[in-house]
């Protein structure tokens, strides 16, 4: 199969790390990628020994396929299972690491959700994703194809047990608007490794909301690409890691077109021994991407001893003609002044801490346009705080 680079330039051998994100190797062939190690920059935070062999080919294939179902399908929205020869597959995504390539070569049928052109879908489309198990690895491929001029909310709700590696391609047509909510709420012991690639047309807008709550190891890589002027990407994230959980989120916002915008806001809380969260935010502004306006921020709230949050924002700017480009990161414990203020007004320490955590997540949870999902996330956060005696 063909090996390429993100900018179609010559690429050194697969084992050599790229000098910049713009020179990263992409390929459909698993053999083109070396087995990740903790010495690799992209994998140094990931607990490779807990990936069930998905990274090195030692996995045991599962006999239980991943299933997707939609309870209510609005007019103008279609779902189908297609073979890998479908022309939409590969439109947005070419694997850039070994696990993504493994997922691409190992799935049997892809799930495609498509929306007609020039329609406004009032009802959120909720796709329930599950059906795997903990005894073997599953692989999947999903395409979300939004027609030009349309507006819709789509929820990918991952639940149940799973050892899953999958790719998700998201195509947002010219002048279309998509709210995409991706929920990782797997059972204990689950492993989920996912690459989501979002491709935006001219004047297209996407609000991508990632919610990670369940599972043993969750590693989600989200890439944003622009194909026309006026693209706008809002990438929001909510995560809460409990004792022993590893929740890792990586983004690459690739500005290759003039006059596009991006805003990345991720917030995480963590508690318990060996709770670990990782956020890596990469923004690439290529020479031709004049007029870019971008900002990214990650905030982490460490609730107990024994928890660790790693946060690394990166900007690679190849032109000086930008509207704005910035990043920020903050990790800390409760604000003692906030707690003192609340307790001085008769609120107990326990309830004061809960109010602080609620307020920490409230803005982002409020951006989710599905009431049942907002309530579920809030209830999960409340339950975890109660278990920890917060």
Automatic annotation (TrEMBL):
- The protein's superkingdom reads Bacteria
Q: Which SUPFAM superfamilies does the entry mention?
A: Stabilizer of iron transporter SufD (SSF101960)
* Positions of the UniProt region annotated as Disordered: 1-21
Location of the SUF system FeS cluster assembly SufBD core domain? 136-360
Matching entries from Pfam families are given as:
SUFBD_core
Q: Which NCBIfam families match?
A: sufD
Similarity section: Belongs to the iron-sulfur cluster assembly SufBD family.
What's this protein's name? Fe-S cluster assembly protein SufD
According to its UniProt entry, this protein's organism is: Fodinicola feengrottensis
């Amino acid at each position: 199969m063909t090996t390429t680079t993100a900018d179609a330039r010559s690429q050194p051998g697969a084992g050599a790390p790229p000098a910049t994100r713009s020179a990263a190797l992409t390929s459909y062939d698993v053999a083109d990628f070396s087995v990740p190690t903790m010495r690799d920059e992209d994998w140094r935070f990931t607990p490779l020994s807990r990936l069930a062999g998905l990274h090195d080919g030692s996995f045991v294939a599962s006999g239980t396929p991943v299933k997707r179902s939609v309870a209510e399908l609005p007019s103008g929205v279609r779902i189908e299972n297609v073979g890998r020869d479908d022309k939409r597959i590969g439109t947005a995504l070419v694997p850039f690491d070994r696990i993504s390539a493994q997922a691409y070569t190992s799935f049997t049928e892809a799930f495609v959700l498509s929306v007609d052109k020039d329609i406004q879908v009032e009802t959120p489309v909720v796709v329930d994703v599950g059906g795997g198990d903990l005894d073997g690895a599953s692989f999947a491929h999903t395409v979300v194809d939004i027609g030009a001029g349309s507006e819709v909310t789509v929820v990918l709700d991952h639940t149940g047990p799973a050892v899953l590696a999958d790719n998700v391609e998201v195509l947002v047509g010219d002048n279309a608007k998509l709210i995409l909510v991706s929920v990782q709420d797997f059972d204990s012991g689950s492993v989920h490794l996912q690459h989501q690639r979002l491709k935006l047309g001219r004047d297209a807008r996407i609000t991508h909301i990632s919610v990670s709550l369940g599972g043993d190891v969750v590693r989600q890589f989200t890439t944003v690409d622009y194909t026309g002027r006026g693209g706008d990407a809002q990438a929001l994230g909510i995560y809460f890691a409990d004792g022993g959980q590893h929740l890792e989120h990586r983004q690459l916002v690739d500005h290759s077109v003039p006059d596009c915008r991006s805003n990345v806001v991720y917030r995480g809380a963590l508690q318990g021994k060996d709770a670990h969260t990782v956020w890596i935010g990469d923004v690439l502004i290529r020479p031709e991407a004049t007029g870019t306006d971008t900002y990214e921020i990650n905030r982490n709230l460490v609730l107990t001893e024994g928890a660790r949050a790693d946060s690394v924002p990166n900007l690679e700017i190849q032109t000086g003609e930008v509207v704005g480009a910035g990043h920020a990161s903050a990790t800390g414990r409760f604000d003692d002044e906030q707690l003192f203020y609340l307790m001085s007004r008769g609120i107990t320490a326990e309830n004061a801490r809960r109010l602080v955590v609620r307020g920490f997540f409230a803005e982002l949870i409020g951006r989710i346009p599905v009431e049942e999902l907002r309530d579920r996330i809030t209830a999960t956060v409340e339950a975890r705080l109660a278990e920890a005696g917060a």
